[in-house]
Write a structure and sequence with these properties.
This is NAD-dependent malic enzyme. One of its GO terms (molecular function) is malate dehydrogenase (decarboxylating) (NADP+) activity. Keywords: Metal-binding, Oxidoreductase. It is a single chain. α20 packs across α23. By secondary structure, the protein is an alpha/beta fold. The strands form three sheets. The protein has a seven-stranded mixed sheet, sandwiched between helices. It has a five-stranded parallel sheet with strand order 1-3-2-4-5, sandwiched between helices. The longest helix is centred in the middle third of the chain and has 21 residues. It has three domains: about 80 residues, Up-down Bundle (Hemocyanin, N-terminal domain); about 160 residues, 3-Layer(aba) Sandwich (Rossmann fold), CATH 3.40.50; about 280 residues, Rossmann fold (3-Layer(aba) Sandwich). It is globular, with a radius of gyration of 23 Å. The structure holds oxaloacetate ion (OAA) and magnesium ion (MG).
């Protein structure tokens, strides 16, 4: 706790508040004796009290709100609770519950969190950013709220996503919370429901586009660079039209990445590597068909292609093994409605409007759903995949659960237990034909916190595509044979902190080898990272 901070303000500072765990000596020293009941709790007792409070609530949204209030009151306790049982708490502070929390953010708004930068403040972004109390910021997750999960344009209500992602940087990979900063850029919203809602909290105008938007982003990037020169900027849940050009513009200039494009790509690649351990096949033998042709789909396709190049294919041969399908059908060379970023995956093929026909013709070994449209992997689709493949790879990656292309139960049932399955949002285990299947969560949460920890430990100047391939391999390597036997192709969530620290160490080693680090290489990278990792304890 800081020297000047005494008394009442200390009890209202979430970074330093200990609530009922302040010792009697601390209470006397800080002038807060009498402001708390007499008992002095251990952190364990405080955690048990929160568990008890959560048990009285029956909706996940209520639990989310309780945890969010706790985060604004006592951060140590918040992280101690989340880290006490990540498999239980991740679905509450992250997908799927965070999706519902974002949709209703303006109705349930309590304490402010993070920084809001409206386009009406252009020219003054540095000033607004400087109001954030912490000065050493290493990770920023920023959104403009236009494509929140698969839920679409939620305007400033999207702030739940940067907040949730950064909580996981800490809970899942040990990045100290005071080094993180969630930001929402408010350029308006095209969501009429919000524009008509008197409780909506953002600018009441349609989204700004074009040169004015680009200039706003540029001013924002410059302000971040000026105030936080060691920070890594993570773009999150921007619409394709902005996500792709922003990443292109900045990826070779600053330490930055797009989680939806690159983080999702890496977790998909990890899932493919894991699946190949089950099927015994080679990456270069696979054919991928994507449902959805946005930046997540092309991002995965590109990273898979780059990984195939490492195994001997040319980039053209590799991309030729990745096909995309969207609302207008298969991406093929007669289509005239395609964007530049989709063209590398647009191949010679007859026009095809039916996904099942595309499966019959292309004979993919894997289908990956990034469409945000639920139920597109229907019985016919899964049956077709199961006819063509001994072990079809079925990845419905859209989030939250309500947008998933199919459920785990459907995939196992319709494939007669043959599917190698992973989904973007979590599904519970499935009993089918006397066998228990544990579906993996193919979510970028296996990647972005680890990437953050690696960047922190190395002060890397860049985040490169190759770093995501290293991350994917590191995640897949850790999956045990026992997990694979139950169908689980990712490390179990109960051990996600340990898994992320291992992944971070692998990425960090690569960063040092590539000369991208701004700190000297420690003798033992693993120990260095574990030593830096945040532990939820009162200092
Ligand atoms: O947040 C998640 O669960 C994964 C993700 O980035 C998205 O769906 O946009
Ligand atoms: Mg996202």
């Amino acid at each position: 706790m800081s020297a000047q901070e005494t008394g009442f303000t200390l009890l209202h500072d979430p970074l330093n508040n200990r609530g009922s765990a302040f010792t009697l000596a601390q209470r006397q020293q800080q002038g807060i004796e009498g402001l708390l009941p007499q008992a002095v709790d251990s952190l364990e007792t405080q955690v048990a009290r929160i568990h008890l409070q959560l048990d009285t609530l029956d909706s996940d949204l209520q639990k989310y709100l309780l945890l969010s209030d706790l985060q604004s009151r006592n951060q140590t306790l918040f992280f101690a609770v989340i880290m006490s049982d990540p498999a239980t708490f991740m679905p509450l502070v992250y997908t799927p519950t965070v999706g519902e929390a974002c949709q209703k953010f303006d109705h349930f708004y309590r304490a402010p969190r993070g920084v809001y930068l409206p386009i009406t403040a252009k020219g003054r972004l540095k000033e607004l950013l400087s109001h954030w109390p912490q000065k050493d910021i290493r990770f920023i997750v920023v959104t403009d709220g236009e494509r929140i999960l698969g839920l679409g344009d939620l305007g400033v209500n999207g702030m739940g996503i940067p907040v949730g992602k950064l909580s996981l940087y800490t809970a899942v990979a040990g990045v100290p919370p005071e080094l993180t900063l969630p930001i929402t850029l408010d350029v308006g919203t095209n969501n009429q429901q919000y524009l008509d809602d008197p409780l909506y909290l953002g600018l009441r105008q349609h989204r700004v586009r074009g040169a004015e938007y680009d200039a706003f982003i540029e001013e924002f990037v410059q302000a971040v660079q000026a105030l936080y020169p060691k920070s890594c900027l993570q773009w999150e849940d921007f619409a394709n039209i902005n996500a792709v050009p922003i990443l292109e513009r900045y990826k070779d200039k600053i330490c930055t990445y797009n989680d939806d494009i690159q983080g999702t790509a890496a977790v998909a690649l990890a899932g493919i590597y894991g699946s190949l351990r089950i099927s015994g096949q080679k990456l270069t033998e696979q054919r991928f068909l994507f449902m959805g042709a946005g930046s997540a789909g092309t991002g995965i396709a590109e990273l898979i292609s780059e990984a195939m190049v490492l195994e001997g294919l040319s980039i053209e041969e590799a991309r030729a093994r990745c096909y995309l399908f969207d609302v207008n059908g298969l991406l093929e060379s007669t289509r005239t409605d395609l964007a530049d970023f989709q063209k590398p995956f647009t191949h010679q093929h007859a026009p095809c409007k039916s996904f099942v026909d595309a499966i019959e013709s292309i004979k993919p070994t894997a289908i990956i759903g990034v469409s945000t449209v639920p139920k597109l992997f229907n019985q016919q689709v899964i049956e077709a995949m199961s006819r063509i493949n001994e072990r079809p790879i079925i990845f419905p990656y859209s989030n939250p659960t309500s947008r998933s292309e199919c459920t785990a139960e459907e995939a196992y049932r319709w494939s007669n237990g043959k599917a190698i399955f992973a989904s973007g949002s979590p599904f519970p285990p499935v009993d089918f034909n006397g066998q228990k299947f544990v579906p993996g969560q193919g979510n970028n949460v296996y990647i972005f916190p680890a990437m953050g920890m690696a960047v922190l430990a190395t002060e890397s100047t860049r985040v490169t595509q190759a770093m995501f391939i290293v991350a994917a391999k590191a995640v897949a390597e850790q999956v045990t044979q026992a997990s694979l036997d139950s169908g689980l192709i990712y490390p179990p969530q109960s051990q996600i902190l340990d898994a992320s620290l291992r992944t971070a160490a692998k990425i960090a080693a690569y960063i040092f080898d590539q000369g991208l680090a701004r700190v000297a290489k420690p003798a033992d990278i693993d120990a260095h990272i574990r030593g830096m990792a945040y532990k939820p304890m009162y200092a």
